[in-house]
From TrEMBL:
PANTHER family: MYOSIN, UNCONVENTIONAL MYOSIN-VI. Belongs to the TRAFAC class myosin-kinesin ATPase superfamily. Myosin family. It comes from the Eukaryota. It comes from Zophobas morio. ATP binds at G149, E150, S151, G152, A153, G154, K155, T156. This is Myosin motor domain-containing protein. GO terms for biological process: actin filament organization; actin filament-based movement; anatomical structure morphogenesis; animal organ development; system development; tissue development. One of its GO terms (cellular component) is plasma membrane. It is found in: Cytoplasm.
Amino acid sequence: MDTVWARDPTEGFILGRISELLVEGAEVIPINPKFQRRVLPFSDIFKAQEDDKDKDYDDNCEMVFLNEGSLLNNIRIRYYQNKIYTYVANILIAVNPYKDIPQLYSAPTIKNYQGKSLGQMPPHVFAVADKAFRDMKVLKQSQSIIVSGESGAGKTESTKHLLKYLCVNWGAQAGPIEQKILDANPVLEAFGNAKTTRNNNSSRFGKFMEVHFDKSLHVAGGHISHYLLEKSRICSPQGDERSYHIFYMMMAGAPESLRKQLGLTKPDDYNYLKTGCTRYFTSSANEKKLSAGQKSADHAKSGPLRDILLDDVEDFTTLDGALSRLGLSDADRLQIYTTVAAVLHLGNIEFEDNPEDTRGGCRVSPSKAKALDIASSLLGIDATELRQALESRVMQSSRGGIKGTVIMVPLKVYEANNARDALAKAIYSNLFDYIVNRINQSIPFQASSSYYIGVLDIAGFEFFTVNSFEQFCINYCNEKLQQFFNEVILKFEQELYRREGLSVPEVSFVDNQDCIDLIETKNHGILNILDEESKLPKPAYNHFTSEIHKHWANEYRIALPRSSKLKSHRSLRDDEGFLIRHFAGAVCYQTKQFLDKNNDALHASLEGIVQDSKNKLIQTLFATSNAQKGKLTFISVGNKFKTQLLELMEKLRKNGTNFIRCIKPNNKMIDGQFDGALSLMQLKCLGMTSVLELMEHGYPSRAPFADLYNMYKDYLPPELKKLEPKIFCEAMLHSLKLRDKDFKFGVSRVFFRPGKFAEFDKIMKSDPENLKAIVADVKKFLVKSRWLKAQFCALTVIKLKNKIIYRKRALIVVQKTVRGYLTRKKYGPRIKVLSKIKNLNGNLKKMEAIAGQLKKEKESTTNDINKLKNEIVATMDKIKKDGKIQPSAIDALYAQIVAKVDNQMDSLQKKLLAQKNAEEQARLRKIQEEMEREKKRKEEEERRLKEEEENRRKKAEMEAKRKLEEEQRRKQEEADRREAERLQAEQAKEALDERRYQERLEQERQDHELALRLAQESNGQIEESPPMIRKSEAVKNQQAALAKGKYDLSKWKYSELRDTINTSCDIELLEACRHEFHRRLKVYHAWKAKNRKRTIMDENERAPRSVMESAARTPKLQQKAPILDNNSQRYFRIPFVRPGGDNSKRGWWYAHFDGQYVARQIELHPEKPPILLVAGKDDMQMCELSLEETGLTRKRGAEILENEFNKEWEKHGGGKYVRPADRKQ
C-alpha cells in the first residue's frame, strides 16, 4: 500500500508502508527493519514520495507532499550535506552546524547574493538580508528581521552575519560607522553572553539592533535596544555553567600588569565564579600562554573548553580593540575593567554574626577584610562607609520621636548577603547599560536616517529543572513573539485571502492569547499580582503563589506543580510554584525568588555611597537614582520589561517583517548529529508545520495594483496611462508569460505562489531599463490581446448573422406547417372518402374480370357493373360540389356505395363458385398460409409491446418509488430543519470542544517531550498523567457500544473484514462488516485526500464529482425511520467527466448498489478502455459512500433497470454476480 512517514519518538518520522486499516488508524510496517511495526492514528501518518526519497529541496514548498514528515526529512538530508539553510516560502530555516563550513560566509559569497531575489540563489541568511534591503527600498518602509529559536540554535551567529552583510554592501560610504556597528557584537557578547549547559555562547539578554540608512540608502548609523539582562548569573552560576564571558576573558587574556592592578588571579578565588564552571575557552596555541596562577584547579585537571567561536585569551584582545574603535579612551576602558573586577571582589566579601550586637546584626568576616578594601578601592568608595552600608541600612521614622530621624538598622547575615549581591548586580547591570549607551553614541543616526533594518535577537524559549523569574520573563516575551508570528503569517494572511476573494483552505492554529492574558492582564495577571504582593508590608512568595492559583483556578493554561510530568517538580508544595502550559510546552516555575528579582532597587544607604564615589564611571552609572523610596511607588522589573516589550511589538508591527527560524540539531552541541525528534519539536513550536500547511495553497508575495502602476507610470506612453491599475497589472503579468496558477488577482492586489520570488522581484525592481523593457512587453501584449478580441468580435458577429438567417428559415417552415394543418383539417374528411371511393375502382375491375369469366348472364352483369360505375361517379360529384355536406352524410353515401359493390361482388362470386371450385380451394390454402404468417407476426408484436409496457411500468414504479422517497424526505425536512437548528448549536459546541481537546492533546505531547528532554539532561524521571477524557467521552463510548450491536469488529483487521464480506453467509455479520469496512475506507480516503500530491488533484476520483459533492452536502442527521431498503438491489447511471479531461467527451458511470453500498461499478469513457470494479477485490478504487450519502436516489432519471446494467456489464466482459443472501451455507 502507500509509502508514508510514520511518527517515531526518537527519529521524529520514519519511512514505512501501510499494511492494515484498523479502527484506531492504520498499521505501519517500517521500511528499515530495525524499527518495529506500529499502529498509529492517521493524524500521525503522512504521505511520502516513493521516488527520489533522498532528493532535497531549497524551498520546502516545492516538495510533492507538504507535511511534517517531508519537512523534517528534507532538513535532515540537507543538514548532512552541509546545506544548513532552507526556506518555507519566504521564511528561512537555519540549522546550527556546530562547525565551520568553508566559504559559506566569505566575501565572494556576500557579493554573489547582492541584488538576487529569494530563489535565484541557494537559501542563505544573506538572501533574507538582501530581501529586507530591497523591500525597504521599493516599499519605502523600515524592515525587521526576527531571529528566533531556542538557546544554542545559532541566533547570535545569524544576527552577526546579517549585520555583516548589510554593512559590507551598503556601509562603505559610512566610513568608521560600518566598523563600529560590527564592533558592537564582540562587546555585547563579552558583557552579555555566557556559557550554559545548552549553549557555549548563550545571549543572556535580548537586543534589537537597528541599522539606519540615509536617503541614498547607505548606512547612516545604528541603534541598539536591549532587554532583560540576566542579573542572577552575576552572583550564582551553577554546575557546568559560567558567568559572563568578560570575567574569564580578563583573567585569561588581560595583560599581567592590568591583572595585578585589578587584583585578578584565577576563577577559583572568587565566590561569584567558583560555584560554576571555572575552565577557560582557549585554543591549543593560546592555552600555552596561560600561567599556572591563571588556571583553576578544574582547568588544570580537565583542560580547557573548546569551541570554534570562543577563545578567552584572544577574545579579550578583540574586545579591547572594539572598545577602542567605538571611541572609548584608554582611561574609559580601564574604568570599565576596574568596575568588572570590583564586582568580583565585592562577591568575596563575607559576613558573620556579630556577637557584640544585641539586635542580631552581622559584621564583615575579619578574613575577608582585604576583599572589602580592594572592592572599595576599585569602586572609589571609603572602606568604612562601604562596610557600614553592607552591615546596616538607614531608615527614617515617620512617627514616634522627631519625624525624619535617621535610624541605623543592623542587617542579619542573609540580609547583608542580599544587599551585597544587589549592589554587585546593580553595578554590572548599570555598566551594561552604560556600554550600550556608548555604542549608540558612537553610531548616531538621527540627522540623516530615512529607514532602518532592525534585527531582533532575543533569548529563545527556556525550560530547566529549576525555572525562576528570568525564565518566566523570557518565555512571556516568546509568547508575545509567537503571537506576532501567528498574526502576521497565519491569522492576518488568511484574513487577507478572504478579503481579496482567494479560495484558500483555512489552516487552524493554536491562539496563545489566553496564555498572554494570564501573564499581563491588568486585573489578575501574574505580573500584576506580583507587583501587588511587593507592596504589602510583609510580602511572601507563598502568599503570591496562592493568589495566582486562587484567581486562575479554572484556567487550563496554569496548573499546580504536582501536575508536571517531571518527577522532581511534583515534590513542590502548591504555594511554592506554578506550571504554565506555554505554546512550546509546560514549564514549572519556582516562585521563591520572584519577589526579590522583581525589585532591583538598592536600599538608600548603598545608593548614597555609590553616588558619592570618587570613581567618575561609578558616579555616571548611578547618576539617576533608583533607590527604593517606597513600596507603593517603585517600578518593578516585570513592569519595566512589559513596557519595553509593548514598545518593541509596536515597532515590529509598523515595519515589514522577515523571519529566520533557527534549529538546534542536537543537545550535545556537536556536528554531524541530527536528532529528529528534537528538531521536529522545534519546527512545530516555531510554527513551521502550520506555515507549510498554509503555503500548500497560499501566496506569500503580493503587491497592490496601485503601487505597481505608480512605479511604472512615469515610463508609460499616453495611451497606456489611461489604463486602470488592475488592467495594467494583468497585461504586465501576462506579458511576462507567467502561468495562471503562479499568481492570482485579488480585489486590490496581485498574489504570487511560493517559489515565484524571482518573477515577483523582476517586477518590483525599479531600475529604469528594466521598467522600460516591461512597458514594451505590456504594449506588445495589449496589441496582441486587442487583435484577439477583434477576431473574437468578428467571429461573434458572423455567428449572430448565421443565427438570424437560421431563425428566418425556421419561421417559414413554421408558417408552412400551420397553413397545411388548417387545410387538412377543413378538407381532410372529403379527401379521405374520395380516396376510399376511388379505391373501389379496383373492386369494379375485379367484377369486370369475373363477369368476363362467366359463361351465362354476361351482358346483364356488365350492365349492372356500368350502372354501379355511374353511381360512383355521381356520388363523387356530389361530394365535390356540395360545400355544406356533413361528414356523416359523406360516410352514409360511402356506405351505400360499398354495400352495393359488396352485394354485386357476392353475386358474381356465387356464380363463379361452381366453376372455380378447384381454383378457389388452392387460393384458400394460400390465404390460410398467409394468415398463419400474419398471426405469428402479430403475436411477436404483442410480445414486444407487452415487454415495452412492462419496462414502462417498472420505470414508472421506480419513479413512483423515487417520488415516494422524496415525499418522505420532504415530510422529514421540516422536522430535520428544527432538529438541525437544535443540533447546530450542539455541533458547534462539540466542534469547539473537539478543537480544544486536540489542542490540549498536542499540548500534552509537547509537555511530554519537554519533560523528557529535561529528564535526560538532569537524569530525572517523568511520570505520566492519566489520559485526558472529554466530558462527552462516556456518552460517546456508550453510543459506540450500542452501535456495535451483536458484533464487536474493533479488533478485526481490514483484510479480515473484506474476506468476511466475500465469503460469509451470515447476513447480519456481513452487513455489520460492510458498515465497518466502508467506515474505515472513508477515513482512509479522507486522509489520502488531505495528503494528496500538489501536482495533480483528484487523480484517483472514485465517483463522479457530483456524487462526492452530494455526499459532502448530505446532512448528518440521524434518520428516524429508514427510507432505503438495506437489502434492495438498485442500479444507477450518470454522466461522468474525468478531472482535467475534455468536457465535450463525456463518459458514463454505472453503479450497482447491493443494499447501502456499491457492489459493482463501471466507468465508460471515450477513447479509454472500460473500467469494471467489484466489491471485495477493487474496494480501494470504488466509491466508498452509502447510497443515502451519494444522493443518487434524488437524481431524476439516474436509476436504471437491472437488465440495462447487466447488459453493459456483460458487454464489457463482467462476470456473474452472486448476492451474499444467495450464497449457500
